[in-house]
Amino acid sequence: MSTVRTSILAVGTFLSLSAMAVAAVATAAPNAALATHTARGAVKFVDSSTLVIHQMSPYSGHNMTFTMRPSTEREGDLKVGSTVVVRYEDKPDHRVATLVEVEHAKVPPHTSPSH
After folding, report:
1. How far is CA 69 from CA 3, 47, 85, 100, in A?
2. Of 51, 56, 84, 109, which cross-links 66 as Cys (Cβ 3.0–4.6 Å)?
3. What is the CATH number of domain 36-102?
4. Residue 16's pLDDT is what?
């Protein structure tokens, strides 16, 4: 009798854990739709709520428009002509920038003239 109870208890526990795992996956699925993407390009237009960049390779020639929110992180001096990397989320009708980082021109280290 105790073997039967133990088996029933084990099967019940297994089914409960399986149901919880399925519920966790179902809950996580909407978050997968909010995957972050990255784009790189030159700023064509920027104001407090909109950013337009001219993409660099491999998609050269395409403009991308992003919605900027107060929560959007901004790193560097964001202005027209700056090269930026934008992390964004795709929404059904627009792209929301989560991070805009200005790329600085890499300056070679100062080298002293040889004598």
Report:
1. 61, 11, 16, 11
2. 51
3. 2.40.50.320
4. 55
